[in-house]
TrEMBL record:
<comment type="pathway">
    <text>Pyrimidine metabolism; dUMP biosynthesis; dUMP from dCTP (dUTP route): step 2/2.</text>
</comment>
<keyword id="KW-0460">Magnesium</keyword>
<feature type="binding site">
    <location>
        <begin position="67"/>
        <end position="69"/>
    </location>
    <ligand>
        <name>substrate</name>
    </ligand>
</feature>
<feature type="binding site">
    <location>
        <begin position="84"/>
        <end position="86"/>
    </location>
    <ligand>
        <name>substrate</name>
    </ligand>
</feature>
<keyword id="KW-0479">Metal-binding</keyword>
<comment type="similarity">
    <text>Belongs to the dUTPase family.</text>
</comment>
<dbReference type="InterPro" id="IPR008181">
    <property type="entry name" value="dUTPase"/>
</dbReference>
<dbReference type="GO" id="GO:0046081">
    <property type="term" value="P:dUTP catabolic process"/>
</dbReference>
<dbReference type="GO" id="GO:0006226">
    <property type="term" value="P:dUMP biosynthetic process"/>
</dbReference>
<dbReference type="InterPro" id="IPR029054">
    <property type="entry name" value="dUTPase-like"/>
</dbReference>
<comment type="function">
    <text>This enzyme is involved in nucleotide metabolism: it produces dUMP, the immediate precursor of thymidine nucleotides and it decreases the intracellular concentration of dUTP so that uracil cannot be incorporated into DNA.</text>
</comment>
<dbReference type="GO" id="GO:0004170">
    <property type="term" value="F:dUTP diphosphatase activity"/>
</dbReference>
<dbReference type="Pfam" id="PF00692">
    <property type="entry name" value="dUTPase"/>
</dbReference>
<keyword id="KW-0546">Nucleotide metabolism</keyword>
<protein>
    <recommendedName>
        <fullName>Deoxyuridine 5'-triphosphate nucleotidohydrolase</fullName>
        <ecNumber>3.6.1.23</ecNumber>
    </recommendedName>
</protein>
<feature type="domain" description="dUTPase-like">
    <location>
        <begin position="18"/>
        <end position="147"/>
    </location>
</feature>
<dbReference type="InterPro" id="IPR036157">
    <property type="entry name" value="dUTPase-like_sf"/>
</dbReference>
């Protein structure tokens, strides 16, 4: 079992919902639960409250990821994945779900696991203006420059 490496204060805005937890000892993401029920029609998106607020320590970030089972089985994803929860934010964690299925609506029930929260260490950069940049193997090649994107 992996030992916790950081403590995060949590305020339960809805005490009837479960505290975020890890399904398995080696999981990176803790499950977030829906505070409200709704039906997500094909192609629709909705902002769903989770009933929690966090005090993420300075130097860390919360990243909200889709749940792979919801994506594979129902086409449900997080629109801005991963969503960023900055250390200074103290409001309710919200998840913007999108139903990518073209024909089937998806029902979200209060208490359902809708996303995962990953707490991660953050490095901050100092941006230094330069007249030129060092050469690299990729150079200025963008989308598809390594063969992964077909624009045809």
């Amino acid at each position: 079992m992996s030992e916790p490496s950081i403590s995060v204060a949590i305020k339960m805005l809805d005490p009837d919902l479960p505290v975020p937890s890890y399904a398995h000892p080696s999981d990176a993401g803790a499950d977030l639960h829906a505070r409200e029920s709704l039906v997500l029609e094909p192609g629709a998106r909705a902002l769903i409250p989770t009933g929690i607020a966090l005090a993420i320590p300075h130097g860390y970030v919360g990243l909200v990821h889709p749940r792979s089972g919801l994506a594979a089985k129902h086409g449900i994803t997080v629109v801005n994945a991963p969503g960023t929860v900055d250390a200074g934010y103290r409001g309710e964690i919200m998840v913007t779900l999108l139903n990518t299925d073209k024909s089937a609506a998806f029902e979200v029930n209060r208490g359902d696991r809708i996303a995962q929260l990953v707490i991660q260490k953050v490095e901050r950069a100092v941006f230094i203006e330069a007249d030129s940049l060092d050469d690299s193997a990729r150079g200025t090649g963008g989308f598809g420059s390594t063969g992964g994107f077909n624009s045809k």
